[in-house]
Amino acid sequence: MRVQDLSVHFKLREGGLLSAKTHTIKAVDGVSFDLDAGETLGIVGESGCGKSTLARALLALIKPRRGRVLWLGEDLNKLDEEDLRKKRQDMQIVFQDPLAALNPRMTVRNIIAEPLWTFFPKIARVQVDERVRGVMKMVGLLPNQVNRYPHEFSAGQCQRIGIARALVLNPKLVVCDEPVSALDVSIQAQIVNLLKDLQKKQNLSLVFIAHDLSVVKHISDRVMVMYLGRAMELADREHLYRRPLHPYTSALIKAVPVPDPKLARAAGDTGLTGDMPSPLDPPAGCVFHSRCPYLIKRCQLEVPALRRLESGDWVACHRAEELDLTIGKSG
Amino acid sequence: MALLEVKDLDVGFDTPEGRVHAVNHLNFSLKAGETLALVGESGSGKTQTVMAILGLLAENGHVSGQALLKGKDLLQMNTPELNQLRGSEIAMIFQDPMTSLNPYLRIDKQMIEVVVHHRGLKKAEAMAKAVEMLRSVHIPDPERIIRQYPHELSGGMRQKVMVAMGLLSEPALLIADEPTAALDVTVQVQVTHLMGALREKSNAAIILISHDLGIVAGLCDRVLVMYAGEAVECGSVDQIYYDPKHPYTQGLLNSVPRLDQPDDKGMQAIPGNPPNLLALPGGCKFRDRCPKAFDACIEKPPMQLDEDRHAFRCFLGAPS
């Protein structure tokens, strides 16, 4: 998959219904990346940074304002409805809230089988049953639970059902939108390890979206950090966690709590103050400048482009070369 | 003397499927100025414990035991008596800042209501105090913010307003139920630091509820780990983090994804799922998920106490 300069904007009317004044929210603004077969790309950012919108745009569930999503060379947004529908077999999504994403009135069997019926209306019952049992085993559910309803399962198990439904068509790409953030910490690792496993076995491409960097580390090959709709950094996992290039990435890494009382008491602040600005009124220049501890004049005037460094990593920061944000170093 | 002493607390709920035992024979105590964390997976009874103490259980809830605040039993009080305490002696910060502020009322109205009612302050005094408190939780431009409605604020701001509101009445006991769970990581750090700093200043005792041992580490003095409605381990933060005795505590610690350690082991989960409270196993309730379970675990292990007040409910780790 290749994503080029993808932008999704929402129009918002200000004032009453009859008011002609509109605001534009740039939910995703000029995002580009490539995703190889079998690769996992982690996308990280705080709420409102546009990561869920990006996920939906990748699957052509939202029309972009600008830019292209190329799937095996074909522009998804140029396909007619029927062709797009066929392509969707290869692309699936797993949602954040496992219970809300499952129809409470359907049995597990019907939930998992629904994509099969959608794409192969004439499929034989035996085949459906066989396939459903197969994926249930694959995601660690007991096949004898097919006739149960979602409420009979725990949150972690519900997420497994959601994953089974995504895998039943043998997709090539699965987009996971915060698949573990609604789960207990003790259960999160189960799901992450399951996805990692399945990816290896099926040679899946994964887009794994999360709001914190700690979970993403264990599953991603590369990580993209987003802020207010823009990509701040896109780097190899090893590089990013050892020496982040963007001050925002470094702050996100420092914000991950350490389960060690002595280290935690000694830990300083992230250096960030305040909240993310409103996406309705993003700062001029670099969108991060209002919270950045390394602000210089240029950041307020000039939007830094996402550029490629020698290491092959991408960053959108004017000062990327001069700053040394190596983790573990003070300051 | 302990500020709060909970003795033999039991909480149950009547449901169409039978009585659910949410909390069983829980004992703990809290000194003034001390911060205690209640830790465990969802359904372990953390929230119901504090709801019972505050008299906020749902209608089908039953409670027994004692919860002594400065020697007076909260569980024996009637609603007017409790109302007198809630908001003055005890304050609560709820999990979700979106739903625990009244969307129809401006921040100022919601904040000063508490102090006007409980401390008999004049409106103008209360207003000044509220603005001061907002400033101390690092809300920029508090004079303007206080005149806004909750929906005009971001999630982080709303949670800071909740913290400010909780501290406004200078409570002896502050209960915070997952105060940072709904927040972004960078804001999470801010709120956690804030609570730490304010504790120093006010000497309030804090009960912090969390399922994430990462967040608890920097803020708390003692930790009570709960599983399926029972205390399974209780000790100082250092005991719990550096010398966890119960396999469940060990599992919780291992499951926190860490950036400060090499990840060759991958992420470690606790296998299985939190137990169904309607069908709890006999003996040790954790044994189905416990990597160290052995024959003896069919019996229920007693709470053991070592010489340093480090308590745990497991046959392993006992002094031999």
Strands of the widest sheet of chain B, in order across it, are: 6-7-8-3-9-10-12-11
Provide the residue-averaged pLDDT of chain A. Answer: 87
Low-confidence stretches of chain B: none
Number of helices of chain A: 11
Q: From the structure provided, what is the oligomeric state, counting identical versus distinct chains?
A: heterodimer
Name of the level-1 CATH class of the domain at 4-89 and 205-312 in chain B: Alpha Beta
Task: Please give a quick description of this structure.
The complex is a heterodimer of chains A (331) and B (320). Chain A has helices at residues 51-58, 81-87, 108-119, 125-138, 155-167, 185-202, 213-217, 237-242, 247-255, 261-266, 297-301; strands spanning 2-13, 22-34, 40-44, 66-71, 74-75, 91-94, 173-177, 205-210, 222-227, 230-236, 307-308, 314-315.
Structure description:
The complex is a heterodimer of chains A (331) and B (320). Chain A has helices at 51-58, 81-87, 108-119, 125-138, 155-167, 185-202, 213-217, 237-242, 247-255, 261-266, 297-301; strands at 2-13, 22-34, 40-44, 66-71, 74-75, 91-94, 173-177, 205-210, 222-227, 230-236, 307-308, 314-315. Chain A is of the alpha/beta class and 331 residues long. Chain A has a domain at 243-331. The radius of gyration of chain A is 21 Å and the shape is globular. The mean pLDDT of chain A is 87. Chain B has a domain at 4-89 and 205-312: P-loop containing nucleotide triphosphate hydrolases (Rossmann fold). Chain B has ten helices and twelve strands. Chain B has helices spanning 46-53, 79-85, 107-119, 123-136, 142-145, 155-168, 185-202, 213-216, 237-242, 247-255; strands spanning 4-15, 18-30, 35-39, 61-69, 72-73, 90-93, 173-177, 205-210, 222-227, 230-236, 304-305, 311-312. In chain B, β9 (222-227) and β10 (230-236) form a beta hairpin. Chain B is globular. At the A-B interface, α5, α6, α7, α9 and α10 of A face α6, α7, α8, α9 and α10 of B.
